[in-house]
Amino acid sequence: MPSLRIVSWNSTGESQQKAVELQAVQPVLAGLYPAAPDVDVFLVQEAQQAAGGSISSMLDTDPATPATGVSVGPAYQRPAAHQPELTTGGGAGHICLVHNGVVVNTPLTLWDYATDPALNGWIASLPGHLQATAQTATTHRPPAYAVLTVGGSTAMLITWHAPLGVPALAPGYTMPGNGLIDAYLVMENSGLLQQAQAQVLATDGVVIIAGDLNTTSQGLAANYPIATGYNPLPDFVGFSDNVSHILAWRPSGNVVTVQEGHSTDSSSVHRIISARVSW
User: Fold this and answer.
1) Is the backbone of residue 12 left (phi > 0), alpha (psi -120 to 50) or beta?
2) At residue 188, what are phi and psi to the nearest 5 degrees?
3) Does residue 79 have a cis bond before it (omega within 30 degrees)?
4) What is the CATH number of the domain that holds 248?
5) What phi and psi, each to the nearest 5 degrees, are found at residue 126?
6) What is the spatial order of strands in the sheet that 206-212 belongs to?
7) 85, 157 Cβ separation under 8 angstroms
8) Contact present, 83 and 122 (Cβ < 8 Å)
């Protein structure tokens, strides 16, 4: 059965202390789960955009060169991948480090709403007075994704630092944590999940969303009275800690489990979370 152990953290910046905190999670998980001790993917949100920050440098440190500081070990595909949180290049950044035992088919890539025909079609279908509002929502932080292969099966890994804000497409309705409903509607009506489904179905794989979604599990479970009703990400199951989540969906309908969920306190306002996705 293929599986991925994922560590995800909104670090709210990079510092040496935060680098040490993230590195310290790995031996804890190895002790708790000796049958599958390796972290397969490290994901960081709100990091610096480019390499050189303390967390990035720690993840890129080979333990064969200990003078550079602490390391998560030798068995990773370095350097870690980086992407900005905005297609305009602004904002903070994402980091993604993948274990050598996982094949990276597509490295971490920021989804571009501007060139998304599915999203443009959805926006065009809205009442005229909402089209400009929806178009504005496309300028907020989009997800980033990577396509991975593990055990011969494909995993579409999506990481997202979901936007905050007051909704205009659903005025008067807020998500716990103040996540922006408009951004969820844009993401789910984009081509991202369609592409993810197409990518993984051939090998009965999974779609994983991990990151700071700026709403709680209660916010994801809610039904918002927009048109005939809107429930965010209804097909996904997973592990949550406040607004941080590791969620999975298997489009074939076969079983996917998110187990061994673990949270670690940190100097960020967000805990470091981990879970093992198996399918």
Assistant:
1) left
2) -75, -20
3) yes
4) 3.60.10.10
5) -75, 155
6) 103-110, 144-150, 153-161, 206-212, 244-249, 237-241
7) no
8) no
- Distances in whole angstroms, Cα of residue 30 to Cα of each of 24, 109, 220, 250: 11, 29, 30, 26
Q: Is 149 helix (H, G, I), strand (E, B) or coil?
A: strand
- Rounded to whole angstroms, the Cα distance separating 31 from 173 reads 43
CB 263, CB 245: distance < 8 Å = no
Using an 8 Å Cβ cutoff, are 210 and 8 in contact? yes
Our count of domains for the chain comes to 1
Q: b or e along 71-88 (b: 16 or more beta carbons within 10 Å of the residue's beta carbon)?
A: bbbeebbeebbbbbbbbe
User: Please, which residues have CB within 8 angstroms of residue 179's CB and are 6 or more apart in sequence?
Assistant: 162, 163, 164, 213, 214, 215, 219, 243
What tokens does 123 get? 């926006």
Which residue do the tokens 């789960």 mark?
33
pTM attached to this predicted model: 0.96
Up-side HSE of residue 129: CA atoms within 13 Å toward CB?
3
Q: pLDDT tens digit string along 102-121?
A: 999 999 999 999 999 999 99
Give 9's strand partners: 44
* Neighbouring C-beta atoms of residue 89, cutoff 10 Å: 10
Whether the Cβ atoms of residue 95 and residue 42 lie closer than 8 Å to each other: yes
State the Cα–Cα distance between residues 228 and 249, nearest whole angstrom.
Answer: 23
Rounded to whole angstroms, the Cα distance separating 74 from 59 reads 10
Q: Containing domain of residue 46, as a range?
A: 3-278
For the chain, list the strands marked E by DSSP. 3-10, 41-47, 81-84, 93-98, 103-110, 144-150, 153-161, 206-212, 237-241, 244-249, 257-264, 272-278
Tokens 């944590």 locate to 177
pLDDT tens, residue by residue, 174-227: 899 999 999 999 999 999 999 999 999 999 999 999 999 999 999 999 988 776
